[in-house]
Amino acid sequence: MNIKRRDVLKMVGAGAAIAGSGTLLGGIARAQSKDPLKIGFISSLTGAQAPLGQPMLVGAQIAVDQVNQAGGVNGRKIELVIRDDKAKPADATVAARELAGSGVNLQMGVVSSAVALALTAMLEQEKAVLITCAAHSDKLTKENFNRHYFRVTDNPYMKLRFMARAVAERYGAVSRWSGLIPDHEYGRTTWNCFEEGLLQYYPSVAKKEPQIVQALKTQYGATDYRNVIGSAMGLAADGFFVSVYGGDAVTLFKQAQPYGFFKKAKVVIDSANEFVVAKAMKQELPEMWVGTHWYAGAFEDLPLSNAVLKEHIKRTNDPYPTGWVGEGHAAVMAYVKAVQEAGSTETQAVIRALESVTFDTVCGPRYFRKEDHQAIKPVLMYRLRGSKTASAGFDVLEYIKMPGKDFVDPPTPGKPLSFRFVKV
Question: What domains are there in the chain, each with its CATH number?
Answer without folding.
Answer: 5-154+297-376 (3.40.50.2300), 157-292+379-406 (3.40.50.2300)
